[in-house]
Amino acid sequence: MGIWDFEIWDFPSVLSIVIPVYNETRRLAASMNRLSAALRALDHPHEVLLVVEASPDDSLALARDIAARHACWQAIDNGPQRGKGHAVRSGIRRARGDIVCYMDADLSTDPAAVPHMLALFARHPDTGIIIGDRRHPQSRVLAAQPRARVRLSRLFNLCVRSFFPCIRTNDTQCGFKAFRAAAAARIFAAQRIDGFAFDVEVLVLAARLGCELRAMPVDWTDAPHSTVRALRHGSRMFLDLLRLRFSPPVTLNP
Fold first, then answer.
1. Is residue 4 part of a domain?
2. Is residue 154 part of a domain?
3. Which pTM does this prediction carry?
4. pLDDT tens digits along 129-181
């Protein structure tokens, strides 16, 4: 029995997948072919939103070409590059599905996680959020991050646990997270961080809203040619953590 073995459940009616895209021409076509194949095998109503921020390469043109081949895919020009958090927020606010998830463009998380995630939502109707957890006992990390990023991640997680005890997960930064539409609408109406620390803000807002959260195992592979730069992005992430910790909390819609 593998971690993706599950019984057949009544899945939610429509799935939206948001893919933030920046400087991805080297691998976007191959990764989206993988995603498309996984979705065809799933045979479930869906939409895919490729949210492209202004890149030094031809990511937008490539995303438009990919989307044109699929009736249910869109390429969205999200304007100047502001960060992954901004791209994900823009995509989720446009999504129309009953379940909304976001995944990294490099598909570090195997798209085989998608049907497993849908089955968990069907099995647990009170769950509002499901997140991939690379530290889950059943997860498989098939190619690890470079040492510098591992050290940075450990320090970042230590700060998260110290600043935000309301977050009850060991892995805030896995790029696979899914929401029921109602939970996504409330969370991303209040979400503000544009950079990579937005995942932490999402989980803090979810805790404040009382959303039930479940972690799930994933197969995860560190993709080569990552667009994450440990020093530059790490510095911004820590600054965003400090702002999130010490700024007045945003008002949440009931």
1. no
2. yes
3. 0.91
4. 999 999 999 999 988 777 777 788 888 888 999 999 999 898 999 999 999 99
Structure tokens belonging to residue 183: 């939970």
Residues 6+ apart with CB under 8 A from 177: 101, 102, 129, 130, 131, 132, 199, 202
Task: Give the domain CATH number at 106.
Answer: 3.90.550.10
Structure tokens at 98: 């009953």
Per DSSP, 50 falls in state E
In a domain, 236, yes or no: yes
Compute the distance between CA of residue 124 and CA of residue 141 in angstroms, rounded to an integer: 26
Would you say 12 and 115 are in contact if contact means Cβ atoms under 8 Å apart?
A: no
Looking at the structure of the chain, the number of domains it has is 1
With CA atoms as reference, report the closest residue to 183 among 84, 244, 122, 97: 97
In-domain check, residue 190: yes
Per residue, what are the HEC states of 59-113?
A: HHHHHHHHHHCCCCEEEEECCCCCCHHHHHHHHHHHCCCCEEEECCCCCCECCCH
The residue assigned the tokens 């949210």 is 51
